[in-house]
Specification:
This protein has 202 residues and is mainly beta. The protein has 2 domains: 104 residues, Immunoglobulins (Immunoglobulin-like, Sandwich); 80 residues, SH3 Domains (SH3 type barrels, Roll). The chain is built from no helices and 17 strands. Strand 11 and strand 12 form a beta hairpin.
């Protein structure tokens, strides 16, 4: 069975703040060791886009710190881009007190991004008692300041997508009769937009 639907949307306004890397950051000698698999993000906060994941026990150089010292700017091993990790999921060593603070500067955006518009989906259910369900979602990027998008299934985040993404396919197994509830929201360092949602039953 394949079903198709569309939800109308009304975009809202938006914007963001970014952290500037100090020129002396490259000379830092302190290191950060992950005590868990830790998301390394484009800015010092969970609303920033994820750049990579630093594996547990990996040690990386610290380049700068956020003003609160709850986040560190590090140089991950698998990418040329520096990114931010939470102090909660790692330990530090070296001359941490000498690590320079990153400065914050207001960008052209300073508000939550607009939620996606022209949201469409199709789904396909295959099987008997346990069904394999494939859900294909498309939307229009209605914001110019999002860090990315988050996809939710039954109230749980299942994916974090990069900025300007307009398509996602989810495949999962569920018992016949299960009611699926999907949502999508745009996010940046300021916050998360309201979700666009839809539901169906296989």
């Amino acid at each position: 069975m394949t079903v198709q639907a569309a939800l109308a949307t009304t975009p809202t306004g938006s914007s963001a703040t970014t952290a500037a890397i100090p020129p002396t950051a490259a000379g830092a000698t302190s290191v950060y060791t992950a005590t868990d698999n830790v998301n390394c993000r484009m800015g010092p906060g969970t609303n920033f886009e994820r750049v990579t994941v630093i594996p547990e026990t990996t040690t990386v150089p610290i380049l700068a710190r956020a003003a609160s010292v709850d986040w560190w700017l590090v140089d991950p091993p698998d990418t040329t881009a520096s990114c931010w990790v939470s102090a909660e999921f790692g330990t530090t060593s070296g001359n941490v007190g000498a690590v320079p603070a990153a400065t914050s500067s207001a960008g052209t955006n300073s508000a939550i991004p607009a939620r996606p518009s022209n949201f469409n989906y199709t789904y396909n259910c295959v099987g008997g008692g346990t069904k394999t369900v494939t859900t294909n979602m498309t939307w229009t990027d209605a914001s110019d300041n999002e860090n990315g998008y988050r996809i939710y299934r039954d109230g749980v985040e299942i994916a974090e997508l990069t900025a300007n993404t307009t398509h996602y396919v989810d495949t999962t197994d569920a018992p016949a009769g299960h009611v699926f509830n999907f949502g999508i929201a745009a996010f940046n360092d300021v916050g998360i937009s309201p979700q666009r949602t839809f539901s169906f039953t296989c």
